[in-house]
Amino acid sequence: AMEKSRPLWDNPLQFVFACISYAVGLGNVWRFPYLCQMYGGGGFLIPYFIMLIAEGMPLLYLELAVGQRMRQGSIGAWKIISPYLCGVGVASVVVSFFLSMYYNVINAWAFWYLFHSFQDPLPWATCPLNSNHTGYEEECEKTSSTQYFWYRQTLNISPSLEVSGSVQWEQALCLMLAWLVVYLCILRGTESTGKVVYVTASLPYCVLIIYLIRGLTLHGAVNGLVYMFTPKLEQLSNPKTWISAATQIFFSLGLGFGSLIAFASYNDPSNNCERHAIIVSLINSATSIFASIVTFSIYGFKATFNYESCINKVILLLMNAFDLEEGSLTADNLNEMKDYLMATHPQEYAQLLPQLKNCAVQGTGLAFIVYSEAIKNMEVPQLYSVLYFFMLLMLGIGSMLGNTAAILTPLTDSRVIAARFPKEVISGVVCFINCVIGLIFTMEAGNYWFDIFNDYAATLSLLLIVLVETIAVCYIYGLRR
Amino acid sequence: MLRVLLLILSVVAIAHAELCKPDAQNAFKVRLSIKTALGDNAYAWDANEEYLFKAMVAFAMRRYSSKSTTQISNVLLCNVTDRVSFWFVVTDSSKNMTTVPGSEVEAAIRMNRNRINSAFLLSDKTLQFLKITSTLLPPVEPSTPVWLIVFGVVLCLIVAGIVFLVVAGIQQRKKKNKESTESENLEERGEVTVTVENGIPCETLDLKAGHINGVFAADDERFTSL
C-alpha cells in the first residue's frame, strides 16, 4: 500500500532561507539598534554574543532537531516524545495564532505606506491645509507632519481604548490584501513557500545595502554611528542589559512558536541541522548589527537635521523679534548673540524665553515615524520610501510565513482534519479567521489593542514553553538520543 | 515764502509721522527676507525698492477699488530696519489726514499678493505682511487617490495568482485520483510496484507504461503472495 509522502523542501538551501526569512524580521531592523543604544552602545555586543552562544544556538538546534527527527508539527512532535507533553505543542500553536493575528497588521501598514509612496510630494512631507486655506491643520501644527500622517491619516486613532470607533475601511482593505498575499505564499505548502522564501530572505539584504550606501553618505550620519557605537561599559553591570540581550536573542530567533519545528519537519532526515542552526543564528545576529548600522546612520541624519532646523527656527525668531539684519545671527555666534540680546533688551528677551527651547537630540520613535521622517528629507524620496516599505513587507511576510506554518503544520498533520479537507481549504480558513479577527486592529482604537497584544501575547508564555521544551528533550527524551 | 513752505512741509511730515508709526491704526508691518530667498543674488534694500513697494501697494489699491485716485504719495513707509522690516499706511487723498481702513488694504493686498511677490522676486514666506494671512495653495490632488490605483493593481495580481494556483491544484488532484485508481487496478492484476521512497510517489513509476522491471520481477520468492 502507498504511504502519503510528506512534502519536502526542494533543497536544503530553501530550508535555510526559510529559517532566515522567519528569524530576520522587524526586530532586527529597529529593536536591536534601540536596545544597543540604550544599554551601552558597542558594549552591548558583549552580552549579546554571550547570550547567543549560551542560549540562542543550543535552543535553535534543539527545535530544529526535534522537528527534523519527528517529522511532525509541534503538537505531533511533542506527542511522540511523551503523550503528556502535547500541551506544549498546543501552547505553541495558540501563541503562534495570537502572533499571526496582530503581526499581519504591520504588513497592512507597510502596504499602506508603500502605496502612498508613489506620490509627489510624499503625503507625510507636508501638513494638510485647514478648512479656509489660511494655514495648516491645527493638529498637524502641534506635532509634525509625519506624526500627523501616522496617527491621524493612517490609524485615525481615538482618544482612548474605550472609544472604539469604527473600522477604517482603508486599513481593512490593506489587511485583507496582506492576508491574501500570505495565503498565496502558503497555499501549496512547502512547494510555494519554498520559492517565496528565496525572495523574502534575500531582498531585504539588497535594500539594506542600498540604504547603507545612502545612509552613510547622508549629512550627520556619522553622529548617529558615533553615538551608537561608543561603548559605555558601565552598563554591563546593569542586570537589565543582560536580560534584554537574552530576550532579544530569544525573540529574534523566534524560539518557542513552533515555526522552527514546522520548518524542520519538512526536512530530509539526513539533513545536518546542527550546521544549519549555527548558520542561521550567526546570520541573524550579523543582520541585526548590519541593520543597526543603517538605522543609526538614518537616526543620526534625522537628529542632525532636526537639531539644525531647530537652531534655524531660534535664529529666525530672534531676528524677527529684534529686527536684526539677515545673516547677522548664525549657528556659530548664536550663544554670544543670545547673551548680548539678553543684556541689551532684557524685557523682550524674557518674553521670548519660553519659545527658545534648547535644541536637544530627541529620543527614539516608531519605525514608521522615524524612517518616514528621514526619507522625506532625502533627495528622490519616493524611491527610498518604496524601497524601505517594500523591505519591511518582505521582512514581515517572511515572519508571517513562519507563523502560519506553525499553525498549519499541526493541523495538516492531524489525520482528523487533513483527511476531510485539502490543505488549500485549511489554509484558507485559517487566513480568513485571522483576517476577520484582525479587523479589531483596524478600528480607531486598534493601535491600543495592538500594543496590548505586542506586549503580552508572546512574552511570558514563550519563556515557559521553551523551558518545558528544554526539560522535555534533556530529561524525558534523553539527551543522548 | 520759504518759511511758509518749510512750515507746511514740517506740518505734513509731522502729520505723516502721526499717521505712520508702529502699531498705528490701519498700519501694517512688512518683513522681507531677501537673503534667505535669493542667496547670492540678493539685492540691497534702498530708496528705489521702497519706491517700487509704494507703487505696488498703490497699484493693488487701484485694482481693488477700481477708482484711480490712489497715488504713490498716498503710501507712507516708516521705521525701516536692517531686517528688512517696516510699517506702511495708505492715506486717503479725498479726506485729509485719514488712512484707508485696514480691511480694505488687507483685501487689496490679498487680491494682488501674487503680483506684489513677483515684483520683488519673493514668495509668501519671504515677503510677509504680518496680520494679513495668505491663502495657501492646497497640494495638487489627483481625482482618484493614487494609492487606490496601486492597491487595485496589486490586488488583481494576487487574486489571479491564487486562482491560478487553486485551479492548478484541483486539476492535479483529479489527475492523481485517476492515476491512483489505475494503479490500484494494476496492483490487483499482480503488477509489481516499488514501495514509496521519501518523496517519490508511486504514480511516476506507473508512467513507465507498465514495463516490468526485470531486476525486481525476476526474483519471485522475495515477494509475498497477495
TrEMBL record, chain A:
A Pfam family that this protein carries is SNF
* Transmembrane segment boundaries: 12-32, 44-62, 83-103, 169-187, 196-222, 242-266, 278-299, 386-408, 429-450, 456-478
Q: What is this protein called?
A: Transporter
Q: Which UniProt keywords apply?
A: Glycoprotein, Membrane, Metal-binding, Sodium, Symport, Transmembrane, Transmembrane helix, Transport
| Stored InterPro entries | Na/ntran_symport, Neutral_aa_SLC6, SNS_sf
Q: Which organism is it from?
A: Fulmarus glacialis
Per the record, the GO terms for biological process are: glycine transport; L-proline import across plasma membrane
GO MF entries: L-proline transmembrane transporter activity; metal ion binding; proline:sodium symporter activity
Record's GO cellular component terms: apical plasma membrane
